[in-house]
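Good morning,

Both structures are done.
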Amino acid sequence: MSRMPTATPARTRPVFVPALLGAVVVMSGLFFLDLDAYTIARYAVSILALIVAVLVVQHGSPAWAVPMVVVAVLWNPVYPFAFSGLPWAAGHIVAAATFIATALLVRGSADAR
């Protein structure tokens, strides 16, 4: 008796595009640290981090929302923290690595919403 193989549910990377875009924006923010244009980069990083946080919760990986919310809070332009210098530049690299890790490691089913 032959059995039909069961189909496994399709797995996708639901946060891949916004997370990689967040990594690009946070790294490009390094070039604007001392300029007024850095406020625009802060808005973009915060918004993308919150988008990624919502998507990871929707797709069943709520633990990945915690680092994204931390990034959103640290880069928020409304009540900005007065970070500067080498530690803040290193923070950009850590934030980009967090975005990339989230993009690569969070997987969800194709039908999750």
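Second structure follows.
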Amino acid sequence: MSASVRSQPCAGALGAFRVIELGMYGSAPICSMLLADFGADVIKVEPPEGDFYRQLPPFERGESHYFMSVNRNKRSVVLDLKTDFGREALGTLIATADVLVENFRPGVLTRLGFSYEQCAKINPGLVYCSISGFGQTGPQREEPGLDLIVQGYAGMMLSSGEENQAPFKIAPAVPDVMGGQSAAYAILAALLARERSGLGQFVDISLLDTSIFSMQLVYLAQWLGSGESPARNGSGHPSMVPMQSFRAGDGRWFNLVGNTDRMWSDACKAMGCEDLSVDPRFATNAGRTANRQQLLDILEPLFATRPAQDWIELFKGAGIPCGPVNDLAQAMASPQLKARQMLVDMPHPRLGHVKTIGIAPKLTATPGTLRRPAPGLGEHTEEVLREVSRGD
């Protein structure tokens, strides 16, 4: 990439846009990385001590994989916003930008002189996106909203796992990832609106809001319909049976979906248990849901008689949705993810090369690209400040 990104933009779909990221942890860096993957010039403004993720193991020769995983395709500028020089330099950057993304607690940037209203005076076309745990309004707006806190507050932890167990944290950082993705598409919507109005706007992203939104397909629908929190069903679905994991005879687990009555009938035929498909308790999905445990008492010992791969092949042969329950290493080694290029190597100036997750959305005309690894702390400070002083 040219030292002057403004004069020679990337050919990607977002190559004409400059994004200033004032981000720590996961949500804001994920948002700006999604924009960077499709060509945006993302300038990550860090304090002198750097993003906290730089300190998190595992390390590879001093480089944090946490940090590298969400900061590729960016340039790093170190500015101390407690100093006049740092604030002046940030103001100059904002004047050249299309987007600012930040995930400080509400009020922090206002105290530093960079609220949306203050930034809009510098740059009326700026799209200013704030990501926080609880949003910019409401009685808890100033409280920290880290992943674990939000998962607990949103009801995720008592919707997952088995009944009568301790609260169950969902392993993926759903609030941070969903928050970053929601912010990215909201920013794109605001940029489209700017094409008509010429003006930017403020975008308020709450990790709590996006976490609640992520639950709508299953548990939220149950609550909306009944007014009661759904029971915890482990890997099972509250209103579709069977749709869950089963342990096979070799100790491995597999997932089976026979939720429609046609699929259930075909699954019973494949298992040689046609009587189950006409049993009044199990013939319909409503019946299977009402008599879930009675059905599981039949299926679980049956599935324990053969290895998982046998059942997978049997059900796939019958057109029944079925698949293995992989650990992460098995998933990443699968032929499907290899074909989708979801694990790739990219050059790294200090490590030689580094593995990184591929770009999930596949665009045919303007695909995302991996152009640079996560930057060293302040690696591009001189370069970027020289550019903005020239008006690039």
